[in-house]
Specification:
The chain is α/β, with parallel strands linked by helices. The protein has five helices and six strands, in the order βαββαβαβαβα. The chain has a six-stranded mixed beta sheet, sandwiched between helices. The protein is globular. Guanosine-5'-diphosphate (GDP) binds next to α1.
């Protein structure tokens, strides 16, 4: 059976857990001491959804300002983007809106947008409510889940939801 390749990039502030989400999805591991990403890193993972196989080519970018100018390289030609914020950081949710606007104006037409509110295991430190983020995601027509790379909650689900929204190539 054929595999459908999907370029996917992760965007969002530094420290929100982009690399941890990718680690959880690709290797099913969590490393609390992982070093921060320099520039960007690339990984692939096959994912089966409804008798269809997707090969995700995942570009995990660094959120630091000094790498921001590189972002277009990673979302160019992408079929999907996961924009990540940290539920314990209102600031990271504000930044997310900036990334969404950039993708809306400069991203590929038809790109599937998914918003991940990560670190949902840290309920006591929450600064962004589920409903606030959900309303925003609905407004812009993006998928939305709260994830935890630490506990693995909703990490596979976000890729599953994305798979469902990617137009299937029929060969
Ligand atoms: P990135 O800069 O967006 O790639 O973020 P990292 O994946 O490097 O994670 C930044 C920090 O947040 C690290 O110390 C991670 O261990 C921690 N972290 C990432 N995801 C979670 C999560 O779901 N829950 C908790 N409690 N910590 C997390
Ligand atoms: Mg990183």
């Amino acid at each position: 059976m054929s595999k459908q390749e999907v370029k996917l990039c992760l965007l969002g502030d530094s420290g929100v857990g982009k690399s941890s989400i990718v680690q959880r999805f690709v290797n099913n591991t969590f490393n609390p001491l992982a070093e921060s990403t320099i520039g960007a890193s690339f990984m692939t993972k096959n994912f089966h959804e409804d008798s269809h196989t997707y090969k995700f080519n995942i570009w995990d970018t660094a959120g630091q300002e000094r790498y921001r100018a590189l972002a277009p390289m990673y979302y160019r030609g992408a079929g999907a983007a996961i924009i990540v914020y940290d539920v314990t950081s209102a600031q990271s949710f504000e930044s997310l809106k900036g990334w969404v606007r950039e993708l809306q104006h400069h991203g590929p037409p038809g790109i599937v947008l998914a918003i991940a509110g990560n670190k949902c295991d840290l309920e006591d430190y929450r600064e962004v409510s589920y409903q606030t983020a959900k309303n925003y995601a609905d407004e812009i027509g993006a998928l939305f889940v709260e994830t935890s790379a630490l506990t693995a909650v909703n990490v596979n689900e976000i890729f599953q939801e994305i798979s469902k929204k990617i137009p299937k190539e029929t060969v």
